[in-house]
Design a protein that fits this description.
The complex is a heterodimer of chains A (340) and B (316). Chain A is built from 13 helices and 12 strands. With 340 residues, chain A is of the alpha/beta class. The longest helix of chain A is centred in the middle third of the chain and has 18 residues. The chains are: A alpha/beta (340), B mainly alpha (316). The structure holds adenosine-5'-triphosphate (ATP), iron/sulfur cluster (SF4) and magnesium ion (MG).
Amino acid sequence: MGHEECQAVNILEVNDLHTVFTTPRGVMRAVDGVALSLRAGETLGIVGESGSGKSVLGRTITGLIADNATTSVSGSVRIGGHDIHALTQKARRRLWGPEVAMVFQDPMTSLNPVKRVSTHLTEALRLHLGLGRKDAYERAIDLLRQVFIPDPTRRMTQYPHELSGGMRQRVVIAMALACDPKLLIADEPTTALDVTVQRQILDLLAALASERNMATILISHDLGAVEGRTDRVAVMYGGRIVETSDTARVFANPVHPYAEALLASIPRIGDAPHTVLRAIEGAPPNMLTLPTGCSFAPRCRFATDRCHEEQPELRELADKGTTHVGACHFPLLPVHQEVS
Amino acid sequence: MRRIAWRAGELLGVLFIVSFGVFMLVTLMPGDPAVAILGEGHPPAEYEALRHELGLNDPLLIRYWDWLSSAATGDLGRSLVPPQSDVSDRILGALPVSVQLAVMGLLIALVLAVPLAMWSAAHAGGAVDRMISAGMFATLSVPSFLAGLLLIMIFANGLGWFPRAQWVRIGEDPVGNLHHALLPAIVIALMELALFTRILRNDLIVTLKEDYILAARAKGMPPWRILVTDALRPSSFSLVTLMGISLGRLVGSTVIVEYLFALPGMGSMIVTASGQGDFPLVQGAVLVIALVYVVVNAGIDLSYGYLDPRTRRVHA
Ligand SMILES: Nc1ncnc2c1ncn2[C@@H]1O[C@H](COP(=O)(O)OP(=O)(O)OP(=O)(O)O)[C@@H](O)[C@H]1O
Ligand code: SF4
Ligand SMILES: [Mg+2]
């Protein structure tokens, strides 16, 4: 596929993206060479343990994390053809809302406690779409209906603390959808919610995405949330994507030992957020001192000397001819079978 | 409604306690009021008679009760020092001057502190932030009488922009009054500015780390708008509290500024009255200042409801 063609089809194109923080304790490669692309209407799940760089990746894609005194971003992110990190701050802000929007993890803290629901919704409409007070208000009510909030006129006058967690997350979603973004990045949108509400919110997001033909990235440490709701999935470890393919393929046939361990340890719904997946032996990597070879090597039961010395690159490992790729020197079964 | 009634009861209680404290304190002040009135060298019987007339020989609690019950009707007694004017009248003359000075000073400080703090917080740790901090520290280290003298020398005597004439009451000539009050108010503002800026800056820095600020950024809101519409209000609790305390304090303690600018305010009145052993005037003035304190603090408490909707009681 030629470059021109790609650009026409893909809403999002990320190439060799690195996000490096300079902290007092050392250099942290939170995102370390990530590439991915997304078409309109397509849904990508990004899964990985706490600290694997999922949030930093999401925020670097939007440009909320960008080059500054202590942060260095390299590589490229194109959203709707705009090279996000080549734009000025101001030009970037114009894309936040109409091109790309985010839903954050905790609806308790991502709404301003001193602002009414109506202000949360209308301010972006007025800023980006130049709507007048009245039009913005009508539109906001309409948005609340789209996220199935009952009695929207009354809700508009309420403050965040007067709403339940699920209602708040619906408001956050309505806020993100306000300017019809082409790409929505939802960073663990249900982790902070009650179990019963989690599914409702995930289903709502999926329905809205397909209704609007919106590209969606669903970040989660909960594989159960991703299964069945995303077209593709990318497994992150130590700031890198270590395996990615169609969701069904990865679930049926993981090739990376980490992905396999992750699948084997699918947390029960209702686990506390940010729990380290217990079934995987060892601690998540210290992002400050990543090993030279495969970053999973210290925890991998297949690790050899080669794993400790040479970093595995993403390559086709299973199901030749598909887009199923992994970064492992000794991938699981399918290839092992071929080799032997 | 219930809440307001409750609050009013609370205020009365506080005032009651404060008034007792004031009464005791002033009563225990050294010096004999009879001597203060008559002067030295009279026969002891004459002093005794006057003490009796003033009710000074009655038991303390009775005297307190007499004083308090007439104070409740607005009668604070008469000054002991000729022309023995009505204490309430004296206070009504001085209080507006002090309140005006304090309010103007605080407003000027606020108007300067808010943008400075926002600018600092937005560039926390950067060059701008450090420059503002240093500047604020400089204002703190200049004593107010020095700042006042300098301002008088430069702007009143030198440039002639401000009058040095008598104080003009706001009722008589509002423009002249504001003109006259501006320089002293600036001196007061300079005293408060550094602390206001610092407190607001620190609270803003904490607020700017909140998720809802990130969410507002992700909506494409410009940084200055986020500062003004998202960060300022949740960050203003400490500042508002501090301003309330400052207002209460300033009403009785701008003595230096009052002397410098020849202003007939509460501070200089209390100092003079104390020196003359004029205990009814001191008692009355301190009681009124306590009243101002209590009322201002009640106002501050109510303002929290505006600042943070979560603290509002829901009336269902
Ligand atoms: N601004 C920053 N400066 C320095 N380090 C950072 C910064 N933001 C994140 N990090 C570090 O980058 C690493 C990746 O963090 P990130 O938040 O992306 O993890 P995550 O995969 O989203 O985890 P979680 O499931 O807990 O949300 C962490 O070690 C984190 O401490
Ligand atoms: S490269 Fe080696 S250490 Fe890394 S996941 Fe594969 S087998 Fe394990
Ligand atoms: Mg995260």
